[in-house]
Specification:
The chain is α/β, with parallel strands linked by helices. The chain has helices at 17-28, 35-43, 47-54, 56-69, 87-96, 106-115, 128-143, 157-167, and strands at 6-10, 31-34, 75-78, 97-103, 148-151. It has a 5-stranded parallel sheet with strand order 2-3-1-4-5. It is globular, with a radius of gyration of 15 Å. It binds shikimate-3-phosphate.
Amino acid sequence: MSDPRAWILVGMMGVGKSTTGQHMARLTGREHLDTDRMLVRKLGRPIPQLFQLYGESTFRDHESTLLREIETGPRVISTGGGIVLREQNWDEMRRLGITLYLDAPFDVLVARLAASRKRRPLLQGEGMEAKVEQILEARLPLYRQADLIVPIGDLNAEAAAQLALRALGVEV
Ligand code: S3P
């Protein structure tokens, strides 16, 4: 019987959690969920507007509520980079399944974020690189709480998905 637990991707902004999750879902026939997209759909505004309207703390409340509402099942779940910040979210992620930390080097993250068209409220303004460094340093111990650490280097999303599946022991 196939594993009924969800596979939950955590990691920094820009690491490719959404696209890697899409590839993992496609390769295994699983459903793909994306907590940022679900929040946008549920609350009816793009992420930067949600931050502006509610502030970070209330945005995190909505994120936690959404996570709590996800039912168990064999899905792939891509999360927002800050989901690791609240201890209760770890309880929910453990309830849902196996957490995987997509771990890319700092330089790769910065290059991807610089090239990305997605607006990220925590990285607005001058000194993006310093902000990424600060956030990464603060969050590393949290990301490393994941069940599996997947060192993706500068692999593209499809290759990262293959590596993540291998870490899970899943043959495709
Ligand atoms: C955030 C990451 C974003 C989004 C929000 C906050 C974070 O998602 O949830 O801007 O705190 O790291 P991505 O990781 O998909 O960029």
